[in-house]
């Protein structure tokens, strides 16, 4: 057995079914030999985005694997691995490496050193005898504590070296979880019992822990509204009467109404780092922070209580303790009817936004497009993701996600053009769902060629493009460049590009045609097609900017 075959055998024993890749890498043949399907992308970044989404949608039960060539392949992968690291996504990155005699040369890219700041572990498989040990360590790390990508480089000469099969032994490592210290749980519930307007802020850790049911039970027992970050959207069902939606750079109307007035914020499964995908907390609030990584505690906010443990276990602990307390006392917040308050805000929001969602203006309003998407898609049968910028901020606060991972939120780092690769990975992981990405014309310029990847690999996906022929929101950043050189203007006929790449493509310019076109496109995707729906929209920006909503 060669070293490359030993790696493939470990992947097979781990239940890996797909390897997202770009040639050339000796592992591609080796994984194919053991029945793992290589899915070849057109660019390293999108290829790794596929592996990223695969891990998310399977909740890490099946790890996304990415293979690229040495040198330029590993170099081009950096942005996508950085994105996975910032969003705490476990994936196994296996770049090929230069032969050992080239290590240390100026012209030999050292992926192991380069990726250390953006990986949970970065190492080189330079000894065939220890390959199974290093891969066991890699999978253990990806399953333990805060998730994150792991890099293991296989030098091209090592790949062909023989492994002593009598020494090769591999069993997939188990996932181990820990709960919070009981005294910390008691302290947290003490604070919640005295809170007048408690609010629950759910992070990505709730999804990784599979803790949606526990979060619902805890929220209902406490009677507190629940918000999620963009990355955690779908961790709490947004059709629940206590849901106030999601937020990052833009926020939902519910976050706008409830977060500024909250006195105690219970953060579950989150680092509480301020990012574009994570709405900030107003200054002066009492914060309870629960995370599975003690290094997260008090990083950017002072906390009154810290709970270190798996989100599912911690939620069960605080629910049990709260239920015990409620047997003999009422919380201060019992005087409040949070459900009625949430319902009132939801009704006010419907009235406030109804005209924007229904407008017949031409070019088509992006909110009309979002409204038609909400009406056409079944959230229980769909996985929707956004791209960076205004497509994200128009869609995420309004689309109602009803099931875990029914919406793939991302963006603690926000590389433009990531959504299509993510949608492809989601479609591979959940073939029974309609996988949808919503992106703008700036974003599709960075990933359009992956339409061919979807067609060639028979991965049905719906690409909804809002094309307003500009980089919306950038004019005020560079007013001189815009006035003198029109630096934010864009152009392109993307429906024609989609057709040329093999997709079923439509262009819509009439607002009355958006709904019928979406339903037709969904039917095409259900039939196995890759569909690009290009909608010519206006350069409008309708959102609640977090900076205008969250005090301080």
Automatic annotation (TrEMBL):
PROSITE patterns: TPP_ENZYMES. Keywords: Amino-acid biosynthesis, Branched-chain amino acid biosynthesis, FAD, Flavoprotein, Thiamine pyrophosphate. GO terms for molecular function: acetolactate synthase activity; flavin adenine dinucleotide binding; magnesium ion binding; thiamine pyrophosphate binding. It holds the Pfam family TPP_enzyme_M. Pathway: Amino-acid biosynthesis; L-valine biosynthesis; L-valine from pyruvate: step 1/4; Amino-acid biosynthesis; L-isoleucine biosynthesis; L-isoleucine from 2-oxobutanoate: step 1/4. It catalyses: 2 pyruvate + H(+) = (2S)-2-acetolactate + CO2. Its cofactor is thiamine diphosphate. One of its GO terms (biological process) is L-valine biosynthetic process. It comes from the Bacteria. One of its GO terms (cellular component) is acetolactate synthase complex. Residues 187-317 form the Thiamine pyrophosphate enzyme central domain. Signal peptide: none annotated. Residues 394-533 form the Thiamine pyrophosphate enzyme TPP-binding domain. Residues 1-104 form the Thiamine pyrophosphate enzyme N-terminal TPP-binding domain. The keyword Flavoprotein applies. Its EC number is 2.2.1.6. CDD domains: TPP_PYR_POX_like. Belongs to the TPP enzyme family. This is acetolactate synthase. It comes from Rhodococcus wratislaviensis NBRC 100605.
């Amino acid at each position: 057995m060669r070293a490359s075959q030993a790696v493939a055998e470990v992947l097979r024993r781990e239940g890996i079914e797909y390897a997202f890749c770009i040639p050339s890498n000796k592992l591609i043949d080796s994984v194919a030999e053991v029945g793992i399907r290589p899915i070849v992308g057109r660019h390293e970044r999108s290829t790794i985005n596929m592996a990223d989404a695969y891990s998310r949608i399977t909740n890490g039960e099946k790890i996304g694997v990415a293979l690229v060539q040495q040198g330029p392949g590993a170099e081009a992968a950096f942005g996508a691995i950085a994105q996975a690291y910032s969003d705490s996504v476990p994936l196994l990155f296996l770049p090929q490496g230069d032969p050992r005699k080239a290590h240390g040369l100026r012209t030999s890219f050292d992926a192991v050193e380069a990726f250390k700041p953006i990986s949970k572990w970065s190492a080189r498989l330079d000894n065939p005898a220890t390959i199974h040990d290093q891969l066991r360590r890699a999978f253990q790390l990806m399953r333990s504590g805060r998730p994150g990508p792991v890099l293991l480089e296989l030098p091209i000469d090592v790949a062909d070296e023989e492994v002593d099969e009598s020494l090769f032994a591999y069993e997939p490592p188990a996932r181990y979880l820990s709960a919070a210290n009981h005294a910390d749980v008691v302290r947290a519930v003490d604070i919640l019992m005295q809170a007048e307007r408690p609010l629950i802020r759910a992070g990505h850790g709730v999804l990784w822990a599979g803790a949606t049911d526990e979060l619902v039970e805890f929220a209902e027992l406490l009677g507190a509204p629940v918000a999620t970050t963009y990355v955690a959207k779908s961790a709490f069902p947004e059709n629940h009467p206590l849901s106030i939606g999601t937020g990052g750079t833009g926020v939902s109307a519910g976050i706008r109404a409830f977060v500024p007035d909250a006195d105690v914020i219970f953060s579950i499964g989150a680092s509480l780092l301020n990012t574009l995908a994570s709405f900030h907390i107003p200054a002066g609030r009492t914060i309870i922070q629960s995370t599975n990584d003690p290094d997260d505690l008090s990083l950017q906010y002072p906390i009154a209580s810290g709970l270190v443990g798996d989100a599912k276990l911690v939620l069960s602990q605080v629910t049990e303790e709260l239920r015990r307390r409620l047997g003999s006392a009422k919380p201060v917040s019992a005087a409040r009817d949070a459900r009625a308050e949430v319902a009132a805000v939801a009704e006010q929001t419907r009235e406030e936004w109804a005209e924007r969602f229904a407008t017949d203006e031409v070019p088509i309003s992006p909110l009309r497009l979002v409204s038609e998407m909400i009406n056409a898609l079944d959230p229980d049968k769909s996985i929707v993701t956004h791209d960076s910028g205004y497509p994200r901020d128009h869609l995420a606060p309004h689309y109602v996600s009803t099931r875990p991972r029914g919406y793939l939120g991302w963006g603690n780092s926000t590389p433009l053009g990531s959504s299509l690769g993510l949608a492809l990975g989601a479609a591979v992981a959940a073939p029974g769902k309609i996988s949808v990405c919503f992106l703008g014309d700036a974003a599709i310029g960075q990933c359009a060629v992956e339409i061919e990847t979807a067609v060639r690999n028979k991965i049905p996906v719906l690409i909804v493009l809002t094309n307003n022929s500009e980089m919306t929101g950038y004019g005020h950043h560079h007013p001189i460049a815009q006035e003198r050189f029109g630096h934010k203007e864009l152009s392109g006929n993307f429906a024609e590009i989609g057709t040329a790449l093999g997709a079923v493509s439509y262009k819509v310019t009439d607002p009355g045609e958006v709904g019928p076109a979406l339903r037709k496109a969904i039917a095409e995707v259900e039939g196995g097609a890759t569909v690009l729906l290009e909608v010519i929209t206006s350069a409008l920006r309708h959102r609640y900017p977090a900076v205008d909503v969250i005090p301080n």
